[in-house]
Specification:
Elements: E1 38-43, E2 47-56, E3 59-69, H1 76-79, H2 84-103, E4 108-113, H3 115-119, H4 123-134, E5 139-140, H5 143-153, E6 164-170, E7 175-181, H6 190-195, E8 210-217, H7 221-227, H8 234-247, E9 264-269, H9 271-281, H10 288-291, E10 295-297, H11 298-318, H12 330-343, E11 348-352, H13 356-368
Parallel strand pairs: 1-4, 4-5, 6-9, 9-11
Antiparallel strand pairs: 1-2, 2-3, 6-7, 7-8, 10-11
Helix pairs in contact: 2-4, 5-13, 7-12, 8-12, 9-11, 9-12, 11-12
GO molecular function: pyrophosphatase activity
InterPro entries: ATPase_NBD (IPR043129), GppA/Ppx_hydrolase (IPR050273), Ppx_GppA_N (IPR003695)
Protein name: Ppx/GppA family phosphatase
Length: about 375
Amino acid sequence: MTPERPRGGDALPQVIGDGADGPVEQFATPLPGQGQLYAALDLGTNSCRMLIAQPRGSQFQVVDSFSKTVQLGVGLEASGRLSRASMGRTVQALRICQKKIEKHNVRRMRLVATEACRRARNARDFIRQVRRETGLNIEIIAPEEEARLAVISCAPLVNTSTEQLLVVDIGGGSTELVWIDLSRVVPEDRPKSIMRLHAGFAPQGDGNARVVDWISVPLGVATLKDQFIDVEDDAARFALMSWFFEENLASFSPYNADNPREGFQIIGTSGTVTTVAASFLGLRRYDRTKVDGLHMSSDQIDTVIRDYLSLGPEGRRTDPRIGRDRHSLIMSGAAILQALMRIWPTDRLSVADRGLREGLLYAQMSADGVLEDGPYT
């Protein structure tokens, strides 16, 4: 079955994302008189990623970006600390980000760190080192804010027919899940009602999106892999990872709920989800315009995952659809994805090549009132 794209699903940032052989970038030239530039940086357990964008109507146009695998969380599971080598790699990446910010004369920015820095005992020392060596002020955000930012970035992909929405963000160190009830929102207002969650998950009254529950599971592609690194058999390790992740969802209230298939939508945002989509499409060089907004069936996802398992570790390492930076983490991400598709009442997944950085940009621009449809209050 041919995957489908929703109408207008590519309407957000016009940048082609990170792929197997590096990103294929299509940047816009900043337009004079169209407003100042904004920067958003996401320093995760595995990657350092940044976008620089300019408001353009009700969306934004990306003018520059950066993405680098820094493996900040390597060794964190065992030691509880960020290693000297991982901090050195990360500072080098952040120096490049600082130069891009300076080159574009960016004044409005939000630069955040997530699970690795939340957990590391020496994270504050690392943040001070970054400020001293690059001049960048990185803030460590709480899991709820990370989940909220991922949710609002996906707002353009929400179907007007969706009554129950699950947004899943599979990160390097944690996975955020947010369950949202849209049944009392006027259908045409459902995407905008997701944007209004930028202010928080607290109830906003009748006619608005209602967050039923959310959870931040301290298992992402890197941390889940580390849990089972001593299991040698590839297929057994995959099965154990999927089972273990599902076990950690027991406290998520919709987990055992009887939810109808009709009106249910699950949106997945992460490198895992976009890599699975790119593999299904057979893309040897990643193209965001073909991936973002794609609908995949659970059978299509299972076919890709079975293909990954049949390739084995060496085959995955050399597969151009997966890429050199992701081959060692793709099976832990696939285990999470398969568990989620097994649990909830849907056989379709909406693929989102967007996440924390886009959410940071939307939140800043909405707060400044520079989007045509905003501010979302």
